[in-house]
Structures are given as structure tokens and as C-alpha cells.
Amino acid sequence: MRPEKYIKNYINGAFVPAESGEYFDNYNPATGQVYSHIPDSDERDVAKAVEAAKKAFPGWAKMATDKRFRILMRVADIIEQNLEAFARAESIDSGKPMAMSSTVDIPRSQSNFRFFATAIMHFSSESHHIAGEAINFTLRQPLGVVGCISPWNLPLYLFSWKIAPALATGNCVVAKPSELTPMTAFMLGQACAEAGLPPGVLNIVQGLGPKAGQAIVDHDDVKAISFTGGTATGRRILQTTSQTFKKASLELGGKNPNLIFADCDFDQMMVDTIRSSFSNNGQICLCGSRLYIQRPIYDKFKEEFVKRVQFLKVGDPFSSVTDLGALVSKAHMEKVMGYIALAEVEGGTVLCGGKPVDVPGEYEQGYFLRPTVIEGLNNECRTNQEEIFGPVVTIQPFDTEEEAIALANGVKYGLASTVWTQDISRANRVAEQLQAGIVWVNCWMLRDLRTPFGGVKESGMGREGGLEALRFFTEPKNVCIKY
């Protein structure tokens, strides 16, 4: 597997330029320089991809499950065998440390293919017996051509999270990665070609969301959309799909709370709270950006947390000592810094960070920002209500369990929450009342691929992961046979 300077679309088993013949620039966030070029695809490229997928669908859908299993496992093997190349490409494209790409993003990507290839071998349907009269059984059949649109923060990780279950269930896919991080999606096409995936089963269209992405959503022959990204974009997708009764799974924004009670395991909590605050520069939808600390340990927490944050190393993504690399783009860095300025206007105090980092040499034009901790804001201010998606957290004390729950639930999002306490009864009470699709107790980002994943409120609709993903990409049909 290898990156290329001029990235191509992967349509009907071939690597082809966009119909427009045009390209736009792909920037390395760590250097601020153009390092490759992305095809500027539009509805013509999507139409070709959908046509290829429609042609491939009958054969792929009818293929024996064990044969699909072997092909998808081969894709996973190729990703694993080329882990270093994939990880390096991911870090160049996104600015994240190579240490994260090589231990989280790419291993999880190949695990997604392995998990869903195996899961489909055990996917079963229901039967219902009408005593002495009839038997009903449920067929779960693939939808046809489906669209998968993924974000820039975990590029191949989330791209494969959607594509693998769609393919495992017998669908053909037209997929679009983020225009900010296109390279590993291109390399996935290379892996699929090498693995012997039949032409047209997976088609990867590169380009801009309003052009290529919207064309996938709009196409009449695309039967379902799986999307991860911002809430505003998700709302537009839902408006389109609701008009055509197209299935949609939307994993959207988050503003996740960490509830830290005085009886927590302080040392373990501190380690995981640093991780949950600043992993991937806070550019993970599951990061905890609102930290609520029970008052008896608030001062102790603040002192220790700020001290540890100040020791985090920001810089060269390929250095083994780097904790935080570059933000994904200049525009995104400006957005994050705008929120830091807003927090100060709203009455917050920046305890540490909040400033760009000057990294010498080839990285002097990169998009580096010091991790930021802000104190003194109320729960209703924009800084605590809106998704920043960067290395910025706010800290705030609370007194009672009821107050903590109210603070946690006091936003329009409901993706994830983290609770730190040694009181098992409290843990259960709080977890039950939190408005979130996932609650971690005394841990963070401990994921089991069998479990459902998704949010409530404006964090999305539908669920990914495990059997939920296999159900989403299939249509149930009841068959009733009378004796």
C-alpha cells in the first residue's frame, strides 16, 4: 500500500480521476504545506459509482457468507501487514501522533473488518410458531446500494466502522471520506483490490461534502446513509432522507461531561481524565470537554490537573515523546482559538494553554495549539454549550449528586458521559439518569465492538456497532408458512 501525490477515486475496481478533471490541495497539518491533491468529484462521479454498485449487488448479495467472510478477512490482513504505511499516511494527513495512528487508528480499522466478517457468520433471524397452524420466520436481506460518509478525526477507523458491516451484510457501498483526510481511504481501495473484492462492491468517491457527499445522499438508488460528522450537516441529511423514506444512521456532535466524585480513585481518574480530555487534540467525539468535580477535591484536582496538562508535549507527530500533534487544519485551529477568546469574554479564566505552539524547523507553519484548561464559567455559556472539538476543557465544582446530573444533562447533546466514584449504588443511579448513549464508569474509551454505539438528543439517531449495525444495513421480511 502506498500514498500517491494525485489521489484517485476507486470506482468499479479501478482508480480513476474525477470527471471534472480538477483537483484541490491536501495539506499536511503539521507543516501547513500542500503534500497531495484530491479529485474534485461531483454528481457525475457518484452516478458512476452507484451504477457500478448496482451492477455488482446481485452477485455480492447472493455470494455465500463464508466467501464474503474470507474476502473481508483478507482486507483486514492486508491492512495489518501494511500497518506502518497506513499509520504514517494517517499521521501526515491528520496531524495526529504516529504513536496514536499505529496503536489505535489502524489496529482498530483492521479489527472492524475482522469483527464484522465474523459477526455475519453468527447473525441469525427470528422465528415465531403459531401452535398447530403456521410458522413465521424473518429474513434479513441487504438493502442494495448504501452510502457511507465519514469524518476527518479518525479517518480510516470510522470509515471502516461503516463500510465493514455494510459489506458483510451483502450491500454494495458508495463511500466518501473527509476531504481533509483522504489518503488512507485511497489506500483502503488498494487493499480491497489486492484482496480480490469484486469490482463495484466498494466504491470510494473523494471530494467535498456539498458536492460529492450531497450527491450520495440525494441519489435515488442509494437506499441508506450512514453518516458521522457535525450536527448541522446531519440535520441537512435528515431533511433529505426523510423526504424519500431513506434509512439514516447519524452519529453527530458531543459535549461530553466527566462527573468526578470525591470518593474516586484519584490517581486512576487523573490518568484517564487527561486522556479523555486531550487524546487526538480533543478531536474525538467521545472526549470529555466539561469536567465537573465534587467540591471537597476541587482544589486538589485543579492543581494536579493543570500541572499534568502543562507537561504534555506538543509538536512533531513522528517523535516518540509527542503527546499532541497538530490540529487538522488552519481553519479548525482558528475556530478553536475563537472559542478560547470567547471563554474569556464570557468570564472564564484560562489556567493553562490557549496559545499556539512554535515548533521549529519543518513544522514552523503547522497548526499546533497548547492544551487549554478554563475555569470560572457557568453552565449556560456558549463555551459550555457548543462543541469545540479541540484541546479545550472547562472545569467546574459541584456539591450534590443531583446537581452533577443536572449539569451533565444541561446541554443539547447526549453522546457520552464518564462517572468516577467508588460507590456502586451511586454509579448505577447516575448512569441511569444521564442523558447519553454511552456511560463509562471509572474508565474511558473502553470499547467492546459488540455493544451499541450512538447518541441521544442532538448527538444523533440510530446505533452503530455489533448487531445494531448489521440490523441497520438489512431489511427484515416476515415469511408466514401455514401447515
Radius of gyration: 23 Å
Stated plainly, the CATH topology of the largest domain is called: Aldehyde Dehydrogenase, Chain A, domain 1
- Sheet-strand content, in percent, reads 15-25%
What does the average pLDDT come to? 97
- Cα distance, first to last residue? 56 Å
Q: Mind summarizing the main beta sheet? A: 7 strands, mixed
Q: Can you tell me the CATH class of the largest domain?
A: Alpha Beta
Q: Would you identify the CATH H-level superfamily of the largest domain? A: Aldehyde Dehydrogenase, Chain A, domain 1
Quantity of strands, as a count: 22
Helical percent range? 40-55%
Biggest sheet: strands side by side, in what order? Answer: 14-15-16-13-12-18-19
Quickly count the helices.
15
What are the segments in which pLDDT stays under 50 over at least 5 consecutive residues? none
Which class do the helix and strand fractions yield? alpha/beta
Gross geometry: globular
Indicate how many domains the architecture comprises: 2
